[in-house]
Design goal:
Blueprint: E1 6-12, H1 13-30, H2 33-36, E2 41-47, E3 61-62, E4 65-66, E5 74-76, H3 82-87, H4 96-99, H5 102-109, H6 120-129, H7 131-149, E6 154-161, H8 165-180, E7 190-196, H9 211-226, E8 255-257, H10 274-287, H11 296-302, E9 312-314, E10 325-328, E11 331-332, E12 338-340, H12 343-363, E13 367-368, E14 372-373, H13 383-386, H14 397-400, H15 404-407, H16 424-440, H17 445-460, H18 466-475, H19 477-497, H20 503-551, H21 554-625, E15 641-643, H22 647-658, H23 661-679, H24 685-691, H25 694-716, H26 729-736, H27 740-753, H28 762-765
Length: 796
Amino acid sequence: MNVNSNYILVGLGGTGGKVLKAFKKRMFQEFSAEERAKIPVGFVYVDTTDEMMRPGDKTWYVLGENAQFNTNEFVFIKGVDLDQIFANPTGFPGLSGVIGDPEVMQKTIGNLGAAAGQKRRAGRILFGANVARYRQAVNAQYDKCKVISGNDKTTVLIFSGLAGGTGSGSIVDVVAQTRKMDQFNNEGTSIVVFPMIPEVTPPGGCDAGRYHANGYAALQELNALMVGAYKPFDLTGLSPTGRVEFGGIKRIANGLMVYSDVNENGYTVNPHTELPQIVSDFAFARVFMETNGNTEEYERSFSFENIDDWRTEYWEKAKNGEIVPYRTKALGSFGIKRIIIPDEEIKEYFTWTLGRQSLLQLRYNNWNDDIGFRDAPANVDWADYVKGQDKKLGNPLENWRFSDKHLMLDIPILPSDEGKWGTFQAYWGKVVPKWLEDAQDASQPIAKLNELVAKGLQSGFRAAGIADFFAGKKEAREKIADEIVQRIEADLFDKWAAGTFALYNLLELSEAIMAETQSKIKQFEDRSVKLRQVVDKLEQERQARAKEYNDAGLITRGLKGKQMLAGYAETMQKICVRKTEVEASGFALDLLKVLLGKENILHSRLEKFVSTVSDAIEEADRQAGSRCKDEVNTTSLEGTVIRYYDQPKVKEFTQTMVHSRKNQENISTAVRQEILKAIGSEKTFARANETIDQDVLDGIFEKTVREKVISIHDNTLVEASEKLINRSILEQLAEQYTSADSLSNFARKIMKESGVMVKLNHTEVGLSVPNNPTTEIGKNVAKKVILVSLPKVEGN
């Protein structure tokens, strides 16, 4: 990394913003955060729309980091009300010359709508109303760069389209106001402008009737500014003359690097996607170029120092003796041809493909040695499991508090009830024999026992009596149902977190739990009826035993009395247990109905989380499918980026990784752990849905999965000749072109097919003009400089 000057990149409108975006994203790709902090490069993006500033825009993310402009790098110039300016023009003295008659200007501009409405005057006024904010933003970036570099040498690169209202309207004022700033008001500061010439055929829907006119007018103004024939109005309102005074500086801008979507060989690129990247790559190469004796001529051409003697063409119709600067010749263009191994794209292909596999593990966990983790579930029958009858998977009912004994509160569900009371059988089995002992001494033992039992049923059972106890618990059934569902959810979450169950298993299991709950509702409805029938039979038995005892004489009672009373007490104990179960069954029925609703809610949460993972699988499919799909054609070199890599080997190695169970489980475990880390300490699917979305999963892919697949690649493909990433393009070319002749032919073809991003009229280029030196192509016009930049041999 070698930056020999402070650089401030200014982007105007959508075109300029896209170039800055591509540049900044490449910085994030090439350099770490620590390295970027030491680079004296600043950004100022000026626009009438804040579309590029919307939070969470995934197009800004690079390796999991958001490269988006910060607020100090963005100047939003549509935050002013033009109608207020027109209503009070004296309040904006810097705009008076631009506006002229405010009423006429207001009618001329009309309603802007989106952005600057392709109206140059609107773009100019909007910039003028915000010129102070622009200067502040540039100042801030200059100060930042100066602190980093320790010097004040600065180069300002201004990028703009000329077809829209924002760029076309503001570019002349941006150049003038930048040069006027104290830090840049000297010949030592280079200002290079990159204006994009409007396409010959405007993209669909882009031409509002001013597309080409805007470009022509902006170029005319830039030309006049460059030759000193035009001084724009001083939008700050501080100039005594009302115009921007440059204090004798001849180079208001060092030059214009014009470009279009068609290069000199007729090769057309997409103006919205490819072209901003090309411009950015060219600027990036200049900013980070290591300077030496071989780069001197290139540097001089970039700053237009190599045409100092021929910067201006004079008016051919001037009278004898008059020298009238008329046209700037500080015009250049550029082309760039990058010969690369698409290292980043290959890494991304690995990442998305293997990341998709990790999500399939989370979703289905169904391994097949021939294809890796399958995109389909394994067949599992959960019916026995939710009944607690699956010997292989175990019995979860105790943990869930979902057994019949729990549902009837024979044993506690809530932690707060634990240790307070025993089972129905334990309670009645303890108190009834004691009451029998107390009753035996009474004159009428059966009546006494009946009295004690009735009291126990009414108020003794669990210090409340069976009716009141279960009535109270019915009031708390929402809380009790929550406890069960929370336990179920915690268990499902833990089993998924441990990799025991897949998400699809959890959905099936959740459905099985709801089905079992519905089945239990029917069972308890039937049980309540049967229990009442049992109580009725026991009541008949009790009455018969009471009659037998009461009818017995003194001798019979003396011989069998205790035995008869014990039998009676045993029947009474059974009645107490069954009556308790009747109340308990009614409670269980109410609880299950509440529980079913809460289980449905849990199931919905599971479905939502599974849907997030399923969507992420589809996104991974799409992302992987959009990468490494080109067939490498080494015979066609007309594109701006020539890609050299062995695509079949990339696909083959990817499948090798997919089929490695060890690698797949390693990646899947790491992905799951990162998801769990993002969810935090609250292990619920509600929390999972709050915290996990496509952005989070993308971040996990771009960091965790990426690191894993690169490590697998490096540890598997050890030899340099085998490697598919992290290798030098020179090594790749050496393998492709094994002789000096073949390499020379390749180099010649590259040179031939390279071209600057503008089509020239060669008749005009060679034309000599009166009052000017004779045209000499290659000397005072159409000078061409070619720089070949090679990577270090030991690295990519």
